[in-house]
Amino acid sequence: MLQPVLPDVQLTPTLEDARRASIDLASAPTALKNAALGAIADRLRGSVDTILTANRADLAAGEKNGLTVGLLDRLALDEARVAALADAVMQIALLTDPVGEVVRGSTMPNAIKLSQVRVPFGVIGVIYEARPNVTVDLAALALKSGNAVVLRGGSAAENTNRVLVALVQDAIESVGLPRAAVQTIDPFGRAGATELMKARGHVDVLIPRGSASLIRTVVTEANVPVIETGSGVVHIFLDESANEQWAIDIVHNSKVQRPSVCNALETLLVHRSAAARVLPGVLDKLTEAGVTIHADARVRALYPTAIAATDEDWSTEYMSLDVSVAIVDSLDEAITHIRQYSTGHTESIITNDLGNAERFLNEVDSASVVVNASTRFTDGAEFGFGAEVGISTQKLHARGPMGLPELTSTKWILRGSGQVRA
Amino acid sequence: MLQPVLPDVQLTPTLEDARRASIDLASAPTALKNAALGAIADRLRGSVDTILTANRADLAAGEKNGLTVGLLDRLALDEARVAALADAVMQIALLTDPVGEVVRGSTMPNAIKLSQVRVPFGVIGVIYEARPNVTVDLAALALKSGNAVVLRGGSAAENTNRVLVALVQDAIESVGLPRAAVQTIDPFGRAGATELMKARGHVDVLIPRGSASLIRTVVTEANVPVIETGSGVVHIFLDESANEQWAIDIVHNSKVQRPSVCNALETLLVHRSAAARVLPGVLDKLTEAGVTIHADARVRALYPTAIAATDEDWSTEYMSLDVSVAIVDSLDEAITHIRQYSTGHTESIITNDLGNAERFLNEVDSASVVVNASTRFTDGAEFGFGAEVGISTQKLHARGPMGLPELTSTKWILRGSGQVRA
């Protein structure tokens, strides 16, 4: 990589501490990392009062500053949520350590032993919004994968995060690992976040977690490598041959089961030859669940209670009980619509036509492409990863749900006995 | 990924053509892609005169514009070099097609069949300098891996590249694949290169190939995902127990065999306890080969004909018959020096101490770490990849020599039968 070019700025000591800590972490045995995770879980359980006091201060400030009910809910902790955080940390301790895995290897014709080994990235940066659970989750995931992490949480969770990071640092130190393995740069404010995005050579990978606008800012401002996560304008296409009951159940589940998450349905496309047969049943079930239908003219002709969709609706990630619905003339038109408006997260087709299923799988360019199942299955836990760093919607390095191995790089190791190149 | 944000600029039609071509390429059978490669090789062999005429025009302009001898040599083609280009294309036809490889898979507890499948990136951008071989190599590698490619070569090779790209396009079209699979944006000049770097959503990955300054520009300017390649401030450390003959042979081979490439040695570090024993022999052999020794004071005390190293020498990629040499007090000091000055490409230790070898392998944070062998082995062909896209010195996605699989992403495919999430 290019040598560090960061001028003398305020983050330099923090980032240099992180780098030094990362060297210790890279060779820390799994048992020691797991001991640190156990210590974090214990301290979380033993510090509920301190955590909740800090959290109440953030909530009070948030109410004063007019945070929405949704944001306040994400920010809020209670005894049960703190216990859940501790449980999540213990789950991470149970996962396989990815560090040291030999990915490939061979003996070269000249007898050099060649192997490609999984190694930690080094220093991971995370920029996120007011969700204290991200603080603990990412600290634990980074630790287990042998990385130092530099956290920049939202200012709305500043008090909670300060308490959580100090607690995590105490726990890490208690087992003999460096405190600087987990650091927050919240005290540096927005300027700190900007520096973190530009700290090429100091930060090996930066992960933004939060709203589309946060992610867009990081992706366009950063000159460190970024893994883009999360934003999902998710589609389902009901093909001509769609099974009606599957269509009803899958669309309902994809939209209603948890509307605020990135794998929830946002746009429903229906083949014109299936519309009269399946659409009323599908939309009735959504309407019963309180979903607002934003529809094009052809859908409204069939289902007059729908409201008119605007041009903006097709690219909107509602994250709420809203769905946009359009009728298309063909599979081609559905694929073209998806290619234009999708964020490349998850798309599903409901069909009994094998050829159409294969075309959809091949031609839809998204992290996760589904036939005859809910879009809600694009999820690290559902895929069996145990814990999820986020869902990557870019194509470089990691695509789709990211587990611990996605927080690592690799290194080539050559063991020779005097060989030179001819 | 974020939706395209490119305003209406001059590259838009080119990039949209590339995207459309990429859809055809993604599902093109291996046999068809190989037929295109065969057609490219045939046309290269059949168009030597046209290619050399264009190349002579570039060479004449280059001489007029004062290009260095080294750059003119990289730019120059002759009959043998064109034949070698055609051979290289046929070698790529012989490689295994990475597209469609199932990387992992499982059956979920609810019976959904889950698989992670290798898919092309889509549209690859390449920004490089006046090396016509890169035009043909990257077009062939992109084609074989199912990607469309948009090339921005150096203006010094403009005539040669125009002829080569037209010939490649004719060949691709002759087998029924879209011409726009391979395009050049050289006619758009520097403004085109700048747009390419900012074309988020249109370019899935951008690969800069060339000088450190070119790479730095791309890495800092781009907001599309970049794979950083090439720059190598490569170190060898002669440990206390280094075998003298291995030290002499490996240092000589690493520096002299091909000094202009990124895996050639630039800095030699020597343990103080080994210096008197091994350094004179090592430096004599380098001096005989015409290498200029830039040394610190302790080395010069032992080897007075060396010239004094400046602070700049330690971070210089000479790519010439120059080497910087320093004595260090310990393995720790060697690792610290390497961590400070290395570009993370390749480092080698010469030692008989098993513990020191393991520490070096673990603690040196480079793409390729070598024990008792030449640094020149960090190479796609040596690793058995058959062809090399470049050598990545970043940690995201690909690290070290990149073969065809490194030009692909993956996609998760879920095949269900009505499943919804509980």
Number of domains of chain A: 2
Sheet/helix structural class of chain A = alpha/beta
End-to-end gap of chain A:
28 Å
CATH fold label of the largest domain in chain A? Aldehyde Dehydrogenase, Chain A, domain 1
Largest contact between protein chains? Answer: A-B, 82 and 82 residues
Can you give the mean pLDDT of chain A? 94
EC number (chains A, B): 1.2.1.41
Enzyme class (chains A, B): oxidoreductase
Family (chains A, B): Belongs to the gamma-glutamyl phosphate reductase family.
GO molecular function (chains A, B): glutamate-5-semialdehyde dehydrogenase activity; NADP binding
3D architecture notes:
Chains A, B: It is found in: Cytoplasm. Chains A, B: GO terms for molecular function: glutamate-5-semialdehyde dehydrogenase activity; NADP binding. Chains A, B: Pfam families: Aldedh. The structure is a homodimer of 422-residue chains. The first copy, chain A, is of the alpha/beta class. The first copy, chain A, folds into two domains: 12-229 and 395-415, 3-Layer(aba) Sandwich (Aldehyde Dehydrogenase, Chain A, domain 1); 234-381, Aldehyde Dehydrogenase, Chain A, domain 2. Helix content of chain A is 42%, strand content 21%. The first copy, chain A, contains 14 helices and 16 strands. Chain A has a seven-stranded parallel β-sheet. The radius of gyration of chain A is 24 Å and the shape is globular. The two termini of chain A are 28 Å apart.
List keywords for this structure.
homodimer, 422 residues, alpha/beta, Aldehyde Dehydrogenase, Chain A, domain 1, Aldehyde Dehydrogenase, Chain A, domain 2, 2 domains, seven-stranded parallel sheet, four-stranded parallel sheet, 14 helices, 21% strand
